[in-house]
Write a structure and sequence with these properties.
Low-confidence stretches: none
Number of helices: 8
Helix content: 40-55%
Strand content: 15-25%
Radius of gyration: 19 Å
Order of helices and strands: EHEHEHEHEHEEEEHHHEE
Mean pLDDT: 89
Number of strands: 11
Shape: globular
Structural class: alpha/beta
Length: 226
């Protein structure tokens, strides 16, 4: 039973999210504001949280920041009417895992929730398995049969990030912020250099590819997927 906490002050949207989650056989746990959400998290296990940003009292940014500061690593999806780049950037800086703009598209929400839950499973196991390939987060190694590479930390984290969200396009700025940090003095060209090194290392491994999406960024594709 997967419990998903919904922190949303609008009762109509809260009900809509409840119906969507129940239809996918998740167990929704509803909170009308951040304080109620914190109380729920203190009392029961939650697998994923969906939170609005603009709520009375504590907003979604502060809620997320407090949870990350307290060591909560559950996936967090922000669902909000705030669509400016600066708002999204702030959300990722405080620790959200994903960001959706209202009005909510039911199919997109379900896909994002499922992707975040898969990602959480990968994080907890700290390994990714793709056919004969295994990425081990603790040792920064990637193995395939008798081949074994111990990668530089940034290269490994870059590949691990892309493969954790197979098929998802990430901009250079997104990758820079998450892997190098928002205060890094490195440029976006650094991402391109690391992508080039990964391609050179693994160009003949059939299990995955790292692709450039012209004008947007990069994505990894697991070739063992149906």
């Amino acid at each position: 039973m997967i419990r998903i906490l919904v922190a949303e002050d609008d009762p109509n949207i809260r009900k809509l999210l409840e119906v969507i989650l129940i239809s996918e056989r998740y167990t929704p746990v509803l909170a009308k504001d951040a304080e109620e959400a914190l109380d729920i998290l203190d009392r029961q296990h939650i697998d994923l949280m969906i939170t609005d940003i603009m709520m009375p009292g504590m907003d979604g940014y502060t809620l997320t920041e407090q949870l990350r500061g307290a060591g909560y690593n559950l996936p967090i999806l922000m669902v909000t009417a705030k669509e400016a780049i600066k708002d999204k950037r702030r959300g990722f800086i405080v620790g959200t895992d994903d960001y959706m703009i209202k009005p909510v598209d039911e199919e997109e929400l379900v896909l994002r929730v499922k992707a975040l839950l898969r990602r959480a499973k990968i994080v907890n196991e700290r390994k990714i398995n793709i056919g004969k390939v295994t990425l081990n987060y603790d040792t920064l190694t990637i193995t395939r049969e008798t081949e074994r590479f111990t990668l530089p930390q940034k290269e490994f984290m870059l590949l691990y990030k892309l493969l954790s969200y197979s098929g998802t396009i990430f901009t250079r700025i997104q990758l820079m912020d998450e892997i190098w940090g928002v205060d890094t003095e490195s440029t976006e060209h650094t991402v391109s250099v690391h992508i080039g090194r990964l391609r050179e290392r693994f160009y003949n491994w059939p299990e995955f590819t790292v692709e450039t999406v012209r004008g947007l960024g990069y994505k990894a594709v697991k070739n063992d997927e149906d």
